[in-house]
Amino acid sequence: FLALPLAVTTASAGPGPAPLPLSISSVLPAPAEAIPGREGFDLTPDTVITAGGPAVAIAEQLAAAWRPATGFPLPVVEDATNNAIKISLDGRLDGEAYRLGVDRDRVELTAGTPAGLFNGVQTLRQLVPAEIESRKIQKGPWTIPGGRINDRPRFAYRGAMLDLARHFHTPDEVKRYIDQISRFKINFLHLHLSDDQGWRIQIDSWPRLTSIGGAPGTGVRGTGGGFLTKAEYREIVEFAAQRYVTIVPEIDMPGHVNAAQVAYPELTCDAVAPRPRIDIRVGYSSLCAGKEITYRFAEDVIRELAAMTPGPFLHIGGDEAHSTPHADYLTFQERVLPMVGKYGKTAIGWQEIAAAKQPNAIVQYWNHQAPPLETTGRVIMSPADRAYLDMQYDLLTPGGLHWAGTTEVRDSYSWDPDQLLSRVPKELVFGVEAPLWSETLTDLAEIEFLAFPRLVAIAELGWSPRSTHDWNSFKARLGAYGPRWTRQGVHFYSSPQIPWS
Ligand code: TNX
């Protein structure tokens, strides 16, 4: 991996440090290998994009991204020799890997799968000047720096999580978030769809979950409310799929179920309806492990959720079940985890499920204050003091909580996902995820402020080989990305640790 050149351009005037010139390695997350070349490629009014078969859809995405600011037609055609961006599948590459070559006459992007091509397109989009993010025609020039990139992910799972339960977020907000995270090669979005305050996904066999649990006022402090219909959920799944993001739905059980119990009091042990809750305490609600209706409920929800989810994973929560007796917790999980397999999915659960027998389940590590995690299955790393996007940057920044401490950008970047847990062999680390809990978040601007830029640190830990890990390089590339977010209208936190240009 080559560090960024240290020279600064004279082209930019005005206040603040002059931006670093774009080079082939000015990419977030850092590519596995980036080798600068001599001459770059200029996008011009005559540039064409060539693609065939399944590559056409990806080529069209690239053209659509570049047309507004360049004003160039950028037609997607079958073949061309010069002044072309060639996008094609190559059976010698696999999975999410891609190769990119840029010289004076052409740009060549190859990958073994459309997902790999999509990743390459995200890289390419960062290699043209930030003005490309504008919706109106800009002057250019549109030079892509010369060189070669050979890139592949370190971990298969690179996730983000959005909590729709504490405050509901609309399908449009979720889509906008997906669009943003997919630029950094995040490939899973976990949606936290139920909690004590609200229930956010239509389940036909238990309709009061949403008519009561998703009613207006079912958010923290009584603000918000709402839920996703199955049609809206499917639309989100489809929107995400076009960006090679897979949705992982979560229904949290056996704790965090107050909203379900308000709607169906028979889901409590004494069948007495609890009061609706709009505060942010945790650990007081529990399904009743001794009642059969509990398992009918769990199975109905899992069956319907599996049927509307094409992705391979269902998350069944399992965290902070402080009011479930331990033996009941194990009984519950050992009956419910296999239901996920019965409907063709692999279960993911928060780290507490590691106490149960759960042969194929994936454990999501979150609480750095808990005893060392021991498990024989795969692990997703979300240490709260590093990866939780809802931790405040410092005690003065708005939004978020600080129960796991404050987390500046450098804290989110400075750890190694497969070295953190001494008792988990590194082969079992499936990837990383950056959860964003919504106790304090009502709108997209608040979401963006906490997510960006820290989500990019987690994305780089998930994608880039450890050999590229370098805070100085990361902060320079991040600083250069700021103008893109500004043009996109993303409300990011301009951390004082980063040299924003
Ligand atoms: C802990 S982390 C929780 C959530 C809260 C979050 C707030 C986890 C699995 N459970 O219920 O929203 O802290 O940071």
From TrEMBL:
The protein's name in its UniProt record: beta-N-acetylhexosaminidase
Domain Glycoside hydrolase family 20 catalytic: 155-324, 331-465
PANTHER family: BETA-HEXOSAMINIDASE (PTHR22600), BETA-N-ACETYLHEXOSAMINIDASE (PTHR22600:SF57)
Domain of life: Bacteria
Enzyme Commission designation: 3.2.1.52
GO terms of biological process kind: carbohydrate metabolic process; glycosaminoglycan metabolic process
Single GO term (MF): beta-N-acetylhexosaminidase activity
InterPro entries: Beta_hexosaminidase_sua/sub, GH, Glyco_hydro_20_cat, Hex-like_dom2, HEX_bac_N
Pfam families noted in UniProt: Glyco_hydro_20, Glyco_hydro_20b
Organism listed in the record: Actinoplanes lutulentus
